[in-house]
Amino acid sequence: MKAKHIAIAGNIGSGKTTLTTLLSKHYDWEPHYEALDENPYISDFYEDMPRWSFNLQIYFLNSRFNSLLRIAETSKTVVQDRTIFEDSKIFAPNLHSMGLMTTRDFETYESLFTSIKSMIQAPDLMVYLRGSIPTLVSRIQKRGREYEDSIRLDYLKRLNERYEAWITKYDEGPLLIIDVDDIDFESNPEDLGDVIKKIDAQLHGLF
């Protein structure tokens, strides 16, 4: 059976890391996590976005590209926390439109992403976690990451708008959308079971 690449996409606080962990345990998949705590720019970015936005996005782009290279080499099915597409379709253009990344830096970023995209494949299944702003804020506050304390509400709203615009046009491969407002797959086994059933239904067509 050929190994597959399952990707979990969604805004900050939507539950990507939690679901990645739960699915990796349930299916015995190999988890690939977003290297947030290893990112040397993340704290500086939330303190001074215009100064550090380009550095932050280049670090993420490089990190996720390396992750995709590792995924391509593994013989196990992989579940990935956040995708390289979100960097290019959501975060970088949002920073540019908010005036937090210069046009010069953004064009350099886009050119680099275009080069990278020619060398990578889209996930075999994209799972998008859709959440409203109140849900995202509640979950961000609950997990208590210090560097996230200064996230601005308008920043989160803009990201959500871009996520919705991106996902409605997503045509890179199979897509599963899960609304996280009314479920809690971390604490409620029934909710997790429902998510797994939906993923199973998608996977039967992939394997």
**CATH architecture grouping:** 3-Layer(aba) Sandwich
Number of strands: 5
Helix content: 55-70%
Beta-strand level of the residues, as a percent range? 5-15%
What oligomeric assembly is this protein in?
single chain
- The H-and-E topology, N to C, reads as EHEHHEHHEHHEH
Shape, please? globular
Kindly report the spatial arrangement of strands forming the biggest sheet: 2-3-1-4-5
Number of helices: 8
CATH homologous superfamily - what is it?
P-loop containing nucleotide triphosphate hydrolases
Which parts are unreliable, with pLDDT below 50 for 5 consecutive residues or more? Answer: none
CATH topology: Rossmann fold
CATH class bucket: Alpha Beta
Mind summarizing the main beta sheet? Answer: 5 strands, parallel
Indicate the structural class.
Answer: alpha/beta
> Taking Cα atoms only, what radius of gyration do you get, to the nearest Å?
17 Å
Taking the alpha carbons of the first and last residues, their distance comes to 7 Å
Query: How many domains would you count in the coordinates?
Result: 1
* Average predicted local confidence, pLDDT: 91
